[in-house]
Structures are given as C-alpha cells and as structure tokens.
Amino acid sequence: MEEIQKWILIGVEIILIVVTILHLRAENKKRKINIHKSKPYHPTSLAIILTLLFVSSFILLILLNRNPRVFQLIWDNWSIISRGVITTIVVSLLAILIGSAIGVLISLLLTLPKRKVFLSLIDSTLLSFIYILLGIPALVLLFLCYYGFNLSVFWASVIALSINLSPFVTKIVTSSISNISQEQIDSATSFGYNPWQIFWHFKFMFVLKNASQSLLVEYYTTIKLSSLAGLIWLYETYHATMDIITNTYDTINAYIILAICYVLIVTWIAVLADYLERRWKPIIN
After folding, report:
1. Residue 106 in 3-state DSSP?
2. Over 60: is that where the pLDDT of 188 sits?
3. Buried (b) or exposed (e) across 250-276, using 16+ Cβ within 10 A?
4. What torsion, rounded to 10 degrees, do the Cα atoms 191, 111, 285, 43 define?
5. Which residue, 60, 13, 56, is CA-closest to 267?
6. What pLDDT score was predicted for residue 164?
7. How many Cβ atoms sit within 10 Å of the Cβ of residue 65?
C-alpha cells in the first residue's frame, strides 16, 4: 500500500512539473509580445496554485518516506477525523455567516448620516461595544457563552466565534464604506445612472471589492480559532486529534494529522483572498 501511495505521489509530482513548465512557457510568450514587458513579473494565480500543489505533494512524499505511520493513522481513524473536520467546517461557516451579518449591520448603523448631535451617541455606544469585544480573547468568549449562558457546546461555539468575528467585520466594512468616492457617485448621477445602478456598481461592488481580501483573512482566522472549541468538549478537529492521542499514545503523528486537516480546510480561502486582491486591486485603484 505504501509503495502504491509513493508512486501515486510521484506521478502527481511529474504531472504538476510538466503543467507548470507549460504554463510558464505560455506566460513567457505573452510577456515577450506585451508592450509593458519592462514591468516586474508577478506569478499568475494558476502558477501559484500549481506550485502550492507541487510543494504539498513533495512534503507528503517526504512524510510518506520518513514517517509512513501518519498515513496509517489517518486510514485507521478516518471516521473520527472526518467527523471532527465536518464539525469544524459547519461551526466555522455558521460563525462566519452570523458574525458577518452582525458586523455589516453595525457598519450600516455607523455610516448612516446623523443630522442631530444626540444621534451621534448611537455611534459612540456601538463603538464602545466594538472596542470592548476587540479586547476579549476568543477563548474567554467561548467559556462565557458555554458556562455563562447555559448553551449547548455547539451553539456556544458558534455564538462565541460569531461575536469574536463581528467587530473585525465592522471595522473592515465601515472603512470600505467610508472610502466610497462622492465624486464618482455624482459623476454616475450626471451620466444618467438610476439609484439602483449607483448602489450596485458604485457602492455595493466597491465595498465588496475593497473589503473582500481583509474579510477572507478574518474568515480563515476564525476557522483556525474554532480549534479552541475543543476545550469546551466540542467534537471538532482538535478534539478528534485528542481522541487519536488517547487511543494510540502517538502525540507527534496525531498533531501532524491535525496540521494537515487545517491546511486542507484553510488554504483554499487564503489562496482565494490573494486571487481576489490581485483581480480587483486595479479596479479599486
């Protein structure tokens, strides 16, 4: 079985090398005929993904040669690992959705024009709560939600992570809304855009493009913070790893499996964040 796995990884490595070389040759040809070829070259998203897959496969190949027991532990404990990974994904997605909704709502309240002085107290109050939440660690929020509000482990984890995420979403979205150019809005109005078109193209899409990269960074941070929920006995990836350690007494390999799981869950979001930044940055500027 180990030999089959090695040959599969070697085959994948060869395919990735060939595809990467072909892609780089095609990019080099495009660069030669580009009038802006004097500009520094930055790798394309496809080149980055291919390199990421190559490096990951290479690390797995070394791991398979030096420590094949890791893969044996994965097969033997697949049901435990898959259950933990699914719980991590579900909790993280719910926390991201709820936390984003709260953050966007607070941002809209903060950016609404206030015509009377006393209405500014709304902003002051909301900002006070944001500053307080920014100072409370995620682990403390988990314990407060679980022990203080008598919630189930699952919902205590979701709510705590949502509360932890919401102030960061608020700061990011508020900053993006504040950067909307009034000159562009006035120009769009003069060119005959209706209110819906102005909202969609010059407000919503601007905020989405301006905030997406920072929001995705906060989102994969939230996924990693979900590992703290294992401390209140939520059966997620970290808790599944503790079960493997209890059953096998193989601490090092269990933590290697934990690292592999989080890399598989989080990496695609990090790649997406960089892709969106590269794609939308020229439009924003």
Report:
1. helix
2. yes
3. eeebbebbbebbbeebbeebeebbebb
4. -130
5. 56
6. 95
7. 11
Q: Which of 151, 113, 107 is nearest to 130 (CA)?
A: 107
Q: Is the pLDDT of residue 284 over 60?
A: no
Reading the block at residue 43, the tokens are: 């790798």
Calpha distance 158→135 (Å, rounded): 19
Cα 275 to Cα 232: distance, rounded to the nearest angstrom? 35
Topology of domain 77-284, per CATH? Answer: MetI-like fold (1.10.3720)
Model confidence at 160: pLDDT above 80: yes
Report the number of secondary-structure helices (H) and strands (E) in the chain. Answer: 12, 0
Maximum Cα interatomic distance, the chain, rounded to a whole number of Å: 74
Other CB atoms within 10 Å distance of the CB of residue 208 = 14
Q: Return the domain boundaries, the chain.
A: 2-66, 77-284
Mean pLDDT taken over the chain: 83
Question: Could you say which DSSP state residue 199 is in?
Answer: I
Residue with tokens 């991590």: 88
Q: How far apart are CA 112 and CA 121, in angstroms?
A: 13
Tell me the pTM.
Answer: 0.82
216 vs 214: CA distance, rounded Å: 5
- pLDDT at position 118 is 65
Q: Which residues contact 152 (CB under 8 A, 6 or more apart)?
A: none
| Cα 32 to the center of its chain, rounded Å | 36
Closest CA to 271 of 46, 58, 85, 91: 46
- Amino acid identity of 273? A
Judge contact between 185 and 120, C-beta under 8 A: no
Is 241 within 8 Å of 89 (Cβ atoms)? Answer: no
Q: Is the dihedral of CA 36, 42, 48, 54 positive or negative?
A: positive
